[in-house]
């Protein structure tokens, strides 16, 4: 309470004390003797507390809801997607709807809330920065990546078995590359048939540190599904989708996230699941983040251009996935296939997918990235061959006062 208001409140309390000690005294008399404000004394006698004690009219969220909104803002900031005023308003309204509240928040409410919570949050103007410049990470940034991963797991009490990584990989249905073959001693070149079907099929894969492989989502180019595509022995839990380009988009990624939740929610050992992914645009839409938040999924975004070191699927799974696919394709060509269609690809898919995503491989992928078990030195040692160059660059640029190339520090995961 400001000093002036505190002084006025002391006058009101003296007037109330006089009236309590002298039941026959009039309010006006007590006010004249104490120099208190008449209306304030009268309201107190009617049982109306001072406005500062009522909590104000702006407090739409109770304490648990306020804490949830703070955690949501922290999560978005840690993903490199800090919330705007409008996004903060939308998040507050989502919390109100979830709690069954009738009221709604607006921009002015959000501004007032930020001002009231100024010890925790503030507004600053974001600065556009080239994605390539943000991606110019040093060895220290990789260390901070591991520290943030550990902080996030500790903050939410996430167990190893509840830690997942997902990403997309593409396969050209009928593209055969060169392979080692046996020919007569005098032969200098060997040709094999190439089906030359460059149509792209995208497989969205997800694995856990506990060895579980979530049924994938297969996306192919087209306006509709043909029944002949699926006369095979594919797993009935696989999710099929289509897009104009053959790539996933925001809508399909959100559909996959629901698919992921269906297959992992009942398997959760702890309370929260962690979902590790790269910075692809459709992975961090507002709808994606909202679904994660409301289903106890905590997203963890990898550093840009670091997935060759830090993403389990890239490091330990996709290379074998492509190898097994090419093996199946070469076998088809060897036995006389001159054309590979979608139906042929879907018939091969269960074979090379099953050979790839074993329990042993899933666990090994997380181990190779130093995430689980937690051993950052596995990745840091891989960077030694160019660590000296990085240190030299950092020293040479130390005289520049600009920190435009620096990665913003992550938020502190505190209660």
Walkthrough of the structure:
The chain is an alpha/beta fold. It folds into 3 domains: about 5-55, no CATH class; about 65-115; about 155-380, Ribonuclease H-like superfamily/Ribonuclease H (Nucleotidyltransferase, domain 5). About 45% of the residues lie in helices and about 10% in strands. It has helices spanning about 5-20, 25-35, 40-45, 65-80, 85-100, 105-115, 130-135, 140-155, 250-265, 285-295, 305-310, 310-315, 320-335, 340-355, 360-370, 375-380, 385-395, and strands spanning about 165-175, 195-210, 215-220, 240-245, 275, 295-300. Strands 4-3-2-1-5-6 form a 6-stranded mixed β-sheet. Helix 1 crosses helix 2 (about 25-35), helix 1 (about 5-20) crosses helix 3 (about 40-45) and helix 13 (about 320-335) crosses helix 14 (about 340-355). The radius of gyration is 31 Å and the shape is elongated. The model is unreliable at about 385-415 (pLDDT under 50).
Rg, rounded, reads 31 Å
Percent of sequence in beta strands: 5-15%
Largest sheet: 6 strands, mixed
> What topology, given as strand order, has the largest sheet?
4-3-2-1-5-6
**Residue runs with pLDDT of under 50 for 5 or more positions:** 385-415
| Category from helices, strands and their pairing | alpha/beta
List the helices and strands and how they pair.
Elements: H1 3-21, H2 27-34, H3 38-45, H4 63-78, H5 85-98, H6 107-116, H7 131-134, H8 139-156, E1 163-174, E2 197-208, E3 213-221, E4 239-243, H9 250-264, E5 273-277, H10 286-294, E6 297-301, H11 307-310, H12 312-316, H13 318-334, H14 342-356, H15 359-368, H16 377-382, H17 387-396
Parallel strand pairs: 1-5, 3-4, 5-6
Antiparallel strand pairs: 1-2, 2-3
